[in-house]
């Protein structure tokens, strides 16, 4: 993640230690992937209670931009900054593979480089990425355009009961969601792992380019 | 609680020592040893720690080259990869634990090999695994695969080190004794390598990491004996891993290594506190005194014997500069890991262990090391295999190909790889299956490391010497096929009971073959591990030995990683066959899967041809002529072509062989030293090959999405993939 951010902004992001309580002056907070606290209790559950989270919640309340990827998404749902939860993958196994994402929400800080319906490839790597939420929450997410990305096939077809195009079994094939003010985005796949032709492509780059433009604006 | 035990010869035998070895203990000590002392001797002199059956032969392997910084004898091998960087790597087995408790056995195998690498100052950047399972028809195999794959993923994914490659074979000989060989590659500045030799009398001995529990006691002894029907009752000897602690330990150690605090450091692996303290003091020529009251403990009332032999995971031992212990303590406190000064170095040349005011052990280190048994075990040279005669093809080429690409040893491994995070860290240039070797980039440089593991056990069984040479040659070829310059090898020698002359004969022959290949290819062995007694005693008293499996892990370097090529068929290209084809069908996958025979001699290994053909291929990759490359191995030419087609979805039309070789021998023979290469102008490459003395001919032209056989029969890339990808999901039930 730090490599991708540096590639887009030209400068290395500042790393924050979990025991810190102050974010300092920042435009963007990124919660990266990576088994915080070993994911031993429940993915993201312990990180949601780490000392720095108070400052992150305050940052969110002030309208700050937050991106959570993989474990970062799990942490955001555990803290309540985003609704719903991530269950074990439907096949009960860790999945590490490429997937295709269909862009659902236009004109958000995270997606404005794409048009609605665009499809891009990105790796995913998780054991607990099966998004779920209660019916009322789902209706709100769908009704208010807060679904950012859905799992799809290469042509953009979305089929929630298809284990190939919706590998972890997420409800409504949801891969990423937005907060009500659309300034917080959580997603399970890793666009930051596809920002370099050498590593197989730059499909994930528009998210970071767009995000940087949005927060600088 | 602990019953008082009498130390005598019968207890020594229970601990795995022979009567003669126990006699040696008595003469070194000049008295009856204490229980703790006997424990120390038994683990240090176990096959696992002492290499007593293999050492004589390991010494014959070439270990030096100008780019080798540290060869065997350290925790891992170290090679120079340019621009001030070193790659540090090793492969190690966790076979016995992985049968007893597949998840934890495999997980702690990954944890252990990671520690061997970061102990030396390297950040681990890639993991690989060479796995051998029993017959797919054996119901136990499914349980073992499920646990091993979950264990490797569970540990590696959590630690955040990408698992980028490896290999899997199936054979009934592994039914009761699967092989789990884990390899880690790490990266360090070459002037910042950390070694294990202790120095400085009075300097503090520091324990960091997880607390010590009762898990894994006598694990090293367990893994130095063959299995009997009670194998599963040995579960308490298997350790339990905690990958999150390992992650913290990696970060804390690397942070400390950036200071000047560390004099020596060693992970606590097999035989735990015993082997780490004995080896550090022994290598440094000093004595060591440990106070076990200071050891962080997970449970109350542990005895000295238990603490010295525990194989609890995620622990390290260090000797620090006394004026830097506070710096070190702060770092470990920050990472919330235990940090304890548990002793100091002495000038006595003894290891002295104290606990609760009692002297529990006092052993002279020199004789413990120097009088360790070394055996020149009787070895019966393997019989030359009978030549293969009179086989004929019962199936059409297309039916044969579809069967082969779906067979257990050739079927897609995606079901396995997809459970390993192969991209974490963002430096994976070629993921599993995309090239003949995995390729990871060295961050902030253009350097690429190519990494592979290889061994063909059925060849080794038929002819261990040829099989040993072939394993090395295939690893070298796989690195070469990406454009990398092969640098060095780590070997993981898995064999059965060395006390049987025919098994020892296999070992000696395989090492001889490996040594010849390593010398001819300028490809030294820089680290390794020997796993013996991989043998199961059956209820009727007979035994089943594994196939001799000298697994080779190998590393190569690309100065410019942008020049690396993958194996996927490229569009509008000529496909050139490089290397000579005689049609060797002995011990082939074709013979086994189509005719049900494991017979004949394996394909001969011509090391001069390997070098010549490989150097030619590499130069043509690096100058941009070859745009995709795949070595020809299991399944021969046609399987290799099919693999290229499946990797990119681009098809090709094969030409008829005009060589006078029968079609099945031409297409499915496993002659060595061969490659398939995609080039824009095949004639030009063939002319260039001819000038270099390398056999080459165009065998196909790429295009479309179908593989078109010489007979005109067409198989679509999609149909090939369907046949290729069915095996693992069918076996594992999803």
From TrEMBL, chain B:
It catalyses: N(2)-formyl-N(1)-(5-phospho-beta-D-ribosyl)glycinamide + L-glutamine + ATP + H2O = 2-formamido-N(1)-(5-O-phospho-beta-D-ribosyl)acetamidine + L-glutamate + ADP + phosphate + H(+). Gene3D superfamilies: PurM-like C-terminal domain, PurM-like, N-terminal domain. Mg(2+) 2 binds at residues 116, 267. Keywords: ATP-binding, Cytoplasm, Ligase, Magnesium, Metal-binding, Nucleotide-binding, Purine biosynthesis. GO terms for cellular component: cytoplasm. The keyword NADP does not apply. Residues 201-355, 574-702 form the PurM-like C-terminal domain. InterPro entries: PRibForGlyAmidine_synth_PurL, PurL_linker, PurM-like_C_dom, PurM-like_C_sf, PurM-like_N, PurM-like_N_sf. It is found in: Cytoplasm. Coiled coil: none annotated. Substrate binds at residues 93-96, 115, 239, 311-313, 531. ATP binds at residues 51, 90, 491, 528. GO terms for biological process: 'de novo' IMP biosynthetic process. Its EC number is 6.3.5.3. It comes from the Bacteria. Residues 9-52 form the Phosphoribosylformylglycinamidine synthase linker domain. Belongs to the FGAMS family. HAMAP family: PurL_2 (MF_00420). This is Phosphoribosylformylglycinamidine synthase subunit PurL. It comes from Acetobacter pomorum. The gene is purL.
